[in-house]
Task: structure prediction
Amino acid sequence: MTRSERDLVVALRSELAGIDPARPCDRLAEAAGLGDDAWNREPAVTRLAVRLERRGDERAGAGGTPPFGWESAADHCRWAWLRGRFLARGSLSLANGRTHLEFIVSPEEAPVLAARLAELGLPAAWRLRRTRGVVTWKSGESVGTFLRRIGAGAALLELEARQVSRALRGELNRVLNAESANLQRAVAAAGRQLEAIDRLEADGRLAAQPRVVRAVAAARRETPEATLADLAARLELHRSAVQRALERLERLALHEEDGTDGTDRPAPRAGPVGTGRGGTALA
Result:
């Protein structure tokens, strides 16, 4: 992650750690989620553990984890517990434009935590990694929903603004790349067409082409940068007619001889010299 991304993650965690639940049951739930792990995290999380302990809700650090009954708890208590669990065992990464949130827990807790998240409508993947359980979200939408539900505010808005900005930049780059590729193809096509026109004029075949083909050739010469639509508007023709005329010019230039009657069929060859209608030689 860049320094600004790391700063944003720190700000988000500090914001979550600064929440002071109004309900005693939520304070109990958050303390249970923190467990004994809060004392090994950043100062903001340690201060949260101290604050909960001083308020007399339960001992939130040294001396055991407060009990928490997930099955019988209200949703607001469940989210408070998850906030504590994230602050104690969670990590957030914004590297390479991707949002990645994971909990590092015991192997036994990983499937339980994944099931609890799924129960709240946020299914997560879990696996074992070096004897530890890892519960993971790689969807920016899921991460954003989770952080919002556990109380993230200003930092989450900044995170979402960055994601939108990144998505817009990606879309803009895609459009620019597509336009650049189209422009390169158009320039290459115009170059081929001009070369074909010069070749046909040099050997006299351009003058033998139909009026529309000659008009398109003249317009292409005068405005090499024009698009098919531009040429069509200038000549008051359908775009398809302009395209067919230019394709005809390129095709004709590839052959030494072709018909001059407005078709692409070779002109009919004369019969053998000295034969009559019946095929007999004339004296």
